[in-house]
Amino acid sequence: MAALGWLTPRRRPATARSVLAGEASAEAARKSSQEVAEVSATEPEFPVLGDERAAAFFDLDNTVMQGAALFHFGRGLYKRKFFETRELARFAWQQAWFRLAGVEDPEHMQEARDSALSIVKGHRVAELQSIGEEIYDEYMAERIWPGTRALAQAHLDAGQKVWLVTAAPVEIATVIARRLGLTGALGTVAESVDGVYTGKLVGEPLHGPAKAEAVRALALAEGLDLSRCAAYSDSHNDIPMLSLVGHPYAINPDAKLRKHARTLDWRLRDYRTGRKAAKVGIPAAAGVGAVAGGTAAAIALHRRRR
Q: What is the pLDDT of residue 276?
């Protein structure tokens, strides 16, 4: 049995230094818990429960999910023989670049939009909407960032409207919003005559400053107070939209947006590695986050019923 003595922990008397260390640690823990309680008590609740003049606006690509929804829509159309392998290769390259770079390249996005417009020309709007439902299930549903989705849910639970704002075609955005329960979606509008796509856009893509104008117009129509609204995006291209609201959030930000957000003390969230960004400013319940794989679709949740 003596040989097994090393398995039995030895009891050593506490020294004066160990007693001091233990007391100091306990005191520090007590003070820390008090500080947390004080911060929780003084920090205003957000989103504000029942504030019907507030709403939330979410960018789609790389904010709600990895990659660009338009590229996955093209992937689904290729599967249905809307175009040839050469076009798919272009979509795949643009998507791979976007995932690696994490930023929107205007030239790539323009090429993708031009390709999509030429592909859908002559097809009926209803046909593309129906196909969009299938493509969502095939390529998009499992690729939404859980953390961003939780942020949207926090607004919905507070009784606020939540809108998707994206350069993707409004038909895709609307499908995503409806399937996930968002209030609605703002997206790029493709021209159609008698329910058939002409291959042209109405105006320009909903990108950059155009997003801000769309949010401003919607806020006016809905009677919203933008100073009480929130906006979420990953891209410096959306700084106009983020600057429009009283509660801007940088989600999975590119380098330019991260720098801009830190300069203006905007709130940051990064779900790409499961880490929280330096400045966290939304209740913990809304900050649930984990990394979701792939590239794809959109946003939204279940609209709160009153």
A: 40
| CB-neighbour burial class of residue 128 (10 A; exposed 0-12, middle 13-18, buried 19+) | buried
Contact 205, 188 (CB under 8 A): yes
pLDDT band, residue 107 (cuts 50/70/90): low
Marked catalytic residue, from 59, 234, 238, 270: 59
Report the amino acid identity of residue 185.
A
- Give catalytic status of residue 194 as yes or no: no
Catalytic residue among 51, 61, 234, 238: 61
Other CB atoms closer than 10 Å to residue 250's CB: what's the count? 29
Sign of CA dihedral 238, 239, 240, 246: positive
Residue located via tokens 């040989």:
3
- pLDDT band at residue 67 using 50, 70 and 90 as cut-offs: confident
Element (H, E) at 201: strand 196-201
H helices present in the chain, as ranges: 16-42, 69-79, 85-101, 106-120, 125-135, 146-157, 170-180, 209-222, 239-244, 255-264
Distance CA(238)–CA(231), nearest Å, equals 9
* C-alpha torsion sign, points 161, 166, 170, 172: negative
pLDDT band with cut points at 50, 70 and 90 for residue 201: confident
Q: Residue 61 catalytic?
A: yes
pLDDT for 131-179, tens place per residue? 999 999 999 988 888 999 999 999 999 999 999 999 888 989 999 888 8
> Which residues 6+ apart lie within 8 Å of 199 measured at CB?
117, 118, 120, 121, 122, 191
